[in-house]
């Protein structure tokens, strides 16, 4: 069994995570975490929908930012997808999607300030990079046959529109709709850095212990996501997209001088700005690397590896909840509800909640990442098992799980997991803003001290780390010959 | 019909764009988010109404999520006036030449940080910080916000000066709670064993009966230093008319609404100057927060 490459790869990853656990800071430091958790759940079951007059506006803004950001991202992503075979385009796209929405928002906040453009671009830019990649993958897989049947002399555009698009339309549509859901999550968490979306009020209620208010916001958010099929209709889409820009709020006016200042002064490394020249750069960079970048990278990688394995374990444990090979309708319905909640809650919000309740360590982050990502993968794998037909005399219960189902879905399970590796790392870095010592912590500290030069270097390092993991993930997937399907 | 719709859209999008220039006439201010947000919004809406009445212009308060966001908004001229802490004020004035500290609270001339501990640690209050060395070493500790004067700068300064070690080496775990109220709650709940906060927040919460004194107590009070102040941009006169800065200052100094002052909590505002905050600048440079 150990000779199976997939098993060997899995064991190596588990071993790395176990060793990582020895170095990681895993603890519950709150003296009464269960009471706090109890209070929180009490809040969720006694929601107060009338806490803030701004709540409905915030919900509207959340939707508006998501629509505008995703629409722009999908438009530019599609254009980029057409030229995706060019190496510079691929590098550019890998770079812009390696930087998390919140980092983009933090950057734009420094010169656009609280203008709607900050939130729109924070979503649109990384999403363009993601759309470009996935759209190009989808377009590539289109059947080349119809194209060959066209008479010679058919224009490129016509050929593209009539032979490629119809073949992949369904996939393009499904994926875009799926990203809209992701966009709602991104939009909501932008509130944590001050944009007028749901996260703004969620953070305020939570930090003050108003759990009933926070519960109401979470419930509204779940309802919003769960009802997407009802209110996002193809016919209504143009209306939404045209109307959304008018509901972003007006924010504060942009002062264009700030943009120039940011690029010509703020982000120039301090030694260059003060005229010390390259000689001053060495100690500056050295200090930054030793005291911030390296500890940040170490913690980010450590947390990512632990969270990745925890995600895998949770996904394997969770998929039977919705698989119709087990249990009755009651169990499956509650399984669905659990997985929908787990995957609809952004990691950032989950980590924030758990940090408040358990105190600061890597544990809340690991649990949050595992719940969210495990929820997504568990859902996909569970659905896949529903298409499997077993022999009538196949074993039941535990034996069915271990001997029939897991071996059958294990390859796609690994594919999903390695696909999400980079996504988990992106999130791990950003969770530093909440006080876990990953790269985001140092980025946030640099921004809090108004040292954007340092922040930019750290963001660049974060991006490079993500690109590296993305490449490694792809390499392993290819090595193990794992098929992937794009997910959020 | 469709044409009509398009026309409406174009008209409203033009409106959307001009909204920006129209609001340029509004005098906007912000404040560092050092306490619970609900309290801040209540407090500063009151101030906005008061200033609007006194200055005869539209005054708007915008809440922000971090100290740095307050400084950036001030620097970017999206706000013209701000209620800063000592450190954020120094940062802001250094970034905006010509900006001025115009008023501070009566209490801000001699502000203090309280170190507080959960009673389960058994740490007893002391007169000298050095006496607490053995008891504090290896405990978990939380600052307030990373950019706070009373919650970060001064406590870090005293930790380094007294114990000759960086906080993260001296304590087992160092966190940043985000604001003073949260520091209080976290130490009270035992999530962190020790914390440092703004003494005014402690006193006010104590007076309002919001502190479980069986769970948390003050263990050391720092020497006094200057803190919060109102800082205004140097270019407001050009935008809002001659003498505008002086009028804002006058209005702030004349503020005598008991309830509003109580919400800060300050007994009144007195004149301040940039030089008053030199000690803060030096301290910040010493511990490496300012270049």
Tell me the number of helical segments of chain A per DSSP (H or I, 4 or more residues long).
21
Query: Mean pLDDT of chain A, nearest integer?
Result: 91
Helix content of chain A: over 70%
Overall geometry of chain A: globular
H/E element string of chain A? HHHHHHHHHHHHHHHHHHHHH
Count of discrete domains of chain A: 2
Number of helices, where a helix is a run of at least 4 consecutive DSSP H or I residues of chain B? 13
CATH first level of the largest domain in chain B: which class?
A: Alpha Beta
CATH class of the largest domain in chain A: Mainly Alpha
CATH superfamily membership of the largest domain in chain B: Periplasmic binding protein-like II
CATH-assigned homologous superfamily of the largest domain in chain A: MetI-like
Most extensive interface between two protein chains, with residue counts: A-B, 41 and 52 residues
The H/E string of chain B reads HEHEHEHEEHEHHEHEHEEHHHEH
Structural class of chain B: alpha/beta
Pfam family, one (chain B): Phosphonate-bd
GO biological process, one term (chain B): transmembrane transport
Keywords (chain B): Signal
Signal peptide (chain B): 1-24
């Amino acid at each position: 069994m150990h000779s199976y490459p997939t098993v060997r790869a899995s064991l190596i990853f588990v071993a790395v995570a176990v060793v990582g656990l020895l170095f990681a800071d895993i603890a519950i430091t709150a003296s009464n975490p269960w009471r706090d958790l109890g209070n929180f759940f009490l809040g969720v079951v006694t929601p107060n929908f009338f806490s803030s007059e701004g709540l409905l506006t915030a919900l509207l803004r959340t939707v508006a930012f998501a629509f505008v950001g995703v629409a722009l991202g999908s438009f530019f992503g599609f254009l980029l997808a057409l030229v995706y075979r060019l190496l510079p385009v691929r590098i550019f796209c890998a770079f812009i999607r390696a930087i998390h929405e919140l980092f983009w928002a933090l950057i734009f906040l420094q010169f656009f300030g609280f203008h709607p453009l900050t939130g729109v671009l924070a979503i649109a830019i990384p999403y363009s990079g993601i759309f470009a990649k996935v759209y190009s993958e989808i377009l590539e897989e289109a059947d080349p046959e119809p194209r060959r049947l066209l008479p010679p002399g058919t224009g490129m555009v016509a050929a593209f529109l009539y032979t490629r698009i119809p073949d992949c339309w369904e996939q393009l549509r499904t994926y875009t709709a799926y990203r809209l859901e992701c966009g709602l999550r991104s939009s909501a968490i932008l509130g944590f850095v001050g944009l007028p979306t749901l996260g703004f009020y969620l953070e305020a209620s939570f930090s003050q212990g108003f759990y009933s208010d926070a519960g109401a916001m979470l419930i509204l958010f779940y309802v919003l996501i769960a009802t997407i099929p009802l209110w996002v209709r193809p016919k209504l889409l143009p209306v939404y997209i045209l109307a959304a820009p008018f509901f972003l709020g007006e924010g504060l006016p942009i002062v264009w001088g700030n943009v120039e200042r940011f690029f010509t002064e703020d982000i120039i490394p301090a030694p260059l700005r003060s005229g010390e020249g390259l000689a001053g750069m060495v100690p500056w960079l050295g200090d930054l690397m030793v005291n911030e970048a390296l500890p940040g990278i170490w913690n980010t990688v450590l947390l990512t590896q632990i969270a990745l394995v925890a995600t895998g374990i949770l996904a394997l444990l969770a998929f039977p909840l919705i698989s119709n090979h087990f249990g009755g309708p009651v169990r499956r319905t509650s399984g669905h509800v659990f997985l929908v909640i787990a995957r609809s809650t952004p990691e950032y919000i989950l980590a924030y909640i758990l940090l408040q309740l358990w105190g600061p360590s890597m544990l809340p982050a690991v649990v949050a990442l595992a719940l969210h990502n495990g929820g997504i993968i568990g859902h996909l794998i569970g659905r896949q098992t529903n298409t499997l037909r077993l022999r009538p005399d196949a074993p039941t219960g535990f034996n069915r799980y271990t001997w029939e189902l897991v071996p059958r879905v294990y390859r796609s399970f690994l594919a999903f997991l390695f696909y999400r590796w980079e996504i988990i790392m992106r999130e791990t870095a950003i969770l530093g803003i909440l006080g876990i010592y990953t790269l985001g912590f140092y980025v946030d500290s640099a921004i809090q001290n108004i040292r954007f030069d340092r922040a930019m270097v750290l963001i660049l390092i974060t991006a490079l780390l993500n690109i590296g993991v993305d490449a490694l993930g792809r390499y392993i997937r290819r090595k193990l010959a794992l098929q992937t399907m794009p997910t959020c | 019909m469709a044409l009509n719709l398009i026309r409406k859209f174009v008209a409203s999008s033009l409106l959307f764009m001009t909204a920006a220039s129209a609001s340029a006439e509004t005098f906007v201010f912000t404040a560092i988010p050092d306490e619970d947000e609900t309290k801040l919004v209540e407090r500063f809406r009151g101030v906005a109404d008061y200033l609007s009445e006194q200055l005869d212009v539209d005054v708007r308060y915008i809440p922000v999520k971090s100290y740095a966001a307050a400084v950036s908004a001030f620097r970017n001229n999206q706000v013209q006036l701000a209620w800063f802490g000592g450190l954020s004020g120094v940062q802001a004035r250094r970034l905006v030449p010509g900006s001025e500290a115009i008023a501070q609270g009566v209490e801000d001339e001699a502000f203090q940080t309280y170190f507080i501990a959960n009673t389960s640690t058994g740490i007893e209050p002391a007169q000298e910080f050095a006496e607490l060395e053995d008891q504090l070493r290896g405990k978990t500790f939380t600052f307030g916000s990373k950019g706070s004067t009373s919650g970060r700068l001064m406590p870090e300064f005293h930790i380094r000066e007294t114990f000759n070690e960086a906080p993260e080496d001296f304590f087992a775990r160092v966190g940043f709670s985000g604001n003073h109220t949260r520091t209080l709650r976290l130490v009270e709940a035992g999530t962190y064993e020790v914390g440092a906060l703004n003494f005014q927040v402690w006193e006010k919460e104590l007076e309002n009966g919001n502190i479980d004194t069986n769970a948390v107590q003050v263990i050391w009070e720092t020497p006094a230093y200057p803190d919060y102040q109102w800082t205004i941009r140097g270019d407001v006169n050009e935008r809002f008319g001659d003498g505008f800065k002086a009028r804002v200052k006058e209005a702030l100094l004349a503020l005598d609404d008991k309830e509003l002052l109580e919400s800060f909590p300050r007994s009144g505002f007195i004149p301040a100057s940039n030089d008053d905050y030199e000690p803060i600048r030096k301290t910040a440079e010493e511990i490496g927060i300012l270049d």
